[in-house]
Amino acid sequence: MSSARKDTDLVMVVTSDMAGQLRGKAMPLRARDHRSVIGVGWTPTNALITAFGPIATGHWGALGDLMLQPDFSTMIDIHIPDYQVDECFVIGNVLTLAGDPWDCCLRGQLMSAIDALREKHGLVLTAAFEHEFHYSGCQEQPGLGYSLRARRRLGAFPDRLSDVIDRCGLVPDTFMPEYGPGQCEFTIEPNNALRAADDAVVLREMTRSVARGLDARASFTPMMDPAGVGNGVHVHFSLQDINGAQVNYDSHRPHGLSQIAGSFLAGMLKLMPEYLCLTAPSVASYMRLVPYRWSAAYNNLGIQDREAGIRICPVFQGGTQDDTEDKFHFEYRAADAAASPYLVLAALIRAGTAGLDAALDAPEATRTDLTMIDADELSAMNIERLPLSLESALQRFATSAWAAEAFGETLVDTYLRHKRCEIAVMQDLSDEEICLKYAAAY
């Protein structure tokens, strides 16, 4: 961290938007105390800016004013000349001029979901985002997935990234040269839900910053090439009570799944087709969410199955009972980095809370290739093929009574407008051209 900045240097107050982008406004550091109260000005129509330039048609136009209030506990101030990394930004919340949370503030939506889970059920959620991305600064060669040779070709990038992430206060976990040429995976330690989303924002931006310092690019696009492998964001999560005790594991129940966790997962699975457009929000996302791509094509629970919508993660059995309880957790696999991490977690928590509200029975885990089962049999198992396109996913969201209640009509309407404008941008493009546009935007 750097303490040598001048008070006229700028810190950017940012918000994660519906395009999964960070947008905001900069202010001099000397205004920190003043602006921590009054924030910086913001405009409702900004929520309709797509990742590609066009602004979706909305009911605000030039009307309205909001406040983007910085949360200085999230501030990143890092200056490493040797890496050509120089970043100073703080994540904020979008509020009305009366100081109330704005419906289209995605961080605010997550905070509201967290509060509802705690107030209704005395539970909190811990999460970590496992990110995949493509790094342009190495010679690509098929067949080197997971290899030491691929790690070597990445040069200084992995070590620099780990160092920068550590200096930002995140805890690096693992780095892997992934299956695709130039593809990488980076994981960090879990955090409470709000901080986990903050951490995801920081990781994405610092990965891009480190790559830029090496005259390269890092792209978190869901698909670089329609014929290639996709980049997912796998959300690892677990539930605790308000005292921090794990509530996920019960050795006496099927698959070790506690009653609480079973109802939570059942809600997530039941509602997954209705919120999929929030976690897989791009046209390119649906090139990835197909069978045999190691992503997720169905709203099923799996065990040691990397194509399940949600999977129960394996626990090494060499430890004690307490180790099993502490490590037992779940992974949501139908997400990518075109999504705001705040909206991803808000959707998962709201859907899980709905499962707890209804005391749903725990889902049965599948252990077979679901493409070999017909739709009627899948329906009897409470499983369905997830929407095949962004438009189909948006239609499920638009007609969901649950979504309207969970997120409010303003967010639902704005999100639909935003994403349908994005679809229009892609309408006359080939799959290859669509992938190129997303690779540039993310």
Folded structure, characterized:
It is globular and about 60 Å long. Helices cover 36% and strands 20% of the residues. The strands form 2 sheets. Strands 7, 8, 9, 10, 11, 12, 13, 14, 15 and 16 form a 10-stranded mixed β-sheet that branches. Strands 1, 2, 3, 4, 5 and 6 form a 6-stranded mixed β-sheet that branches. Helix 2 runs parallel beside helix 9 (341-357), helix 6 packs across helix 11 and helix 11 runs antiparallel to helix 13. The model has no long low-confidence stretch (mean pLDDT 96). It contains 14 helices and 16 strands. With 442 residues, it is an alpha+beta fold.
Features:
alpha+beta; Creatine Kinase, Chain A, domain 2; 2 domains; ten-stranded mixed beta sheet; Ubiquitin-like (UB roll); 442 residues; 36% helix
